[in-house]
Design goal:
8 helices, 2% strand, globular, two-stranded antiparallel ribbon
Length: 263
């Protein structure tokens, strides 16, 4: 099969999964089913026909408005669909028809979903994090790919480590500093990236939370008498994506910087 055809099929599959991811992003934080009711306009409640539910294309044809009531549709829908389509096409281009291509595409899709729910609602649904954990372990069990031992140990150490950090922070500050959703999310990351990847994700995610999250929280009024609210899941997702793509390069650079010979 020609490579271009493989990439096209991957992009089409990604676009469809992106459409479903939009449903998850909107419904899971509210505790709603992602199956029922069928897709409908949030403004007028009119059901969306299949021909108005084609990823990206329908949004462009309808010019971003509901066919029934003409109320504008959020641009998030086509953006997420297009982003996931590109992720799946890029994974296919990088790894071909392989388990690693599926691992990469699924992992980045889940990270995008969790980052969006945390950004919108300050919630990381267990359906995505724990469901992703199961998927990550299942894909690692397929021979020839990422080691199942690394996946299991990575998930376990990441979970236990962040739970310990959360407990220490609670004792130190007298109030919760990390949500359980963050802990579950890091366990999933450990299942896909292993121990070293999870640890590097914590470092990068914390750094991004400080240099980006704190200024954003200040600008949005996130500093309150009860504490500072930073959606850490966003920065963990970005950190994990960076580690997945360039983790080895970052580690080699750091080791060379820290222990390399002078001059």
């Amino acid at each position: 099969m020609p490579d271009v055809l493989i990439w096209s099929y991957a992009a089409l599959l990604g676009a469809m999964l992106g459409s479903f991811l939009n449903v998850c992003i909107y419904r899971l934080p509210a505790g709603e089913s992602v199956v029922r009711p069928r897709s409908h306009c949030p403004a007028c409640g009119a059901g969306i026909a299949w021909y108005d539910n084609v990823p990206v294309l329908s949004y462009l044809i309808l010019r971003g408005r509901c066919r029934a009531c003409r109320v504008p549709i959020s641009a998030q829908y086509p953006i997420i669909e297009l982003a996931v389509a590109l992720v799946w096409a890029a994974a296919a281009a990088r790894y071909g028809l392989s388990v690693e291509a599926v691992r990469t595409a699924v992992f980045l899709t889940l990270l995008l979903g969790m980052a969006m729910t945390d950004a919108r609602e300050m919630v990381i649904p267990d359906h995505l994090s724990l469901g992703g954990l199961v998927i990550g372990l299942g894909l690692a069990a397929v021979p020839g790919g990422f080691s199942i031992v690394n996946a299991v140990i990575g998930a376990g150490v990441a979970y236990a480590g962040l739970r310990l950090i959360a407990w220490i922070a609670r004792k130190a500050f007298g109030k919760p500093a990390l949500g359980l959703g963050d802990v579950h999310m890091l366990a999933m990351i450990g299942a896909f990236l292993g121990i070293s990847g999870a640890l590097l994700t914590i470092v990068l995610g914390s750094f991004l939370g400080l240099v980006v999250g704190l200024p954003v929280a200040w600008f949005k009024g996130g500093f309150t008498p009860r504490g500072t609210y930073i959606p850490l899941g966003i920065y963990l997702a970005v950190g994990a994506a960076i580690v997945h793509g360039w983790g080895d390069i970052i580690v080699q650079w750091y080791l060379g910087y820290a222990f390399g010979s002078p001059g």
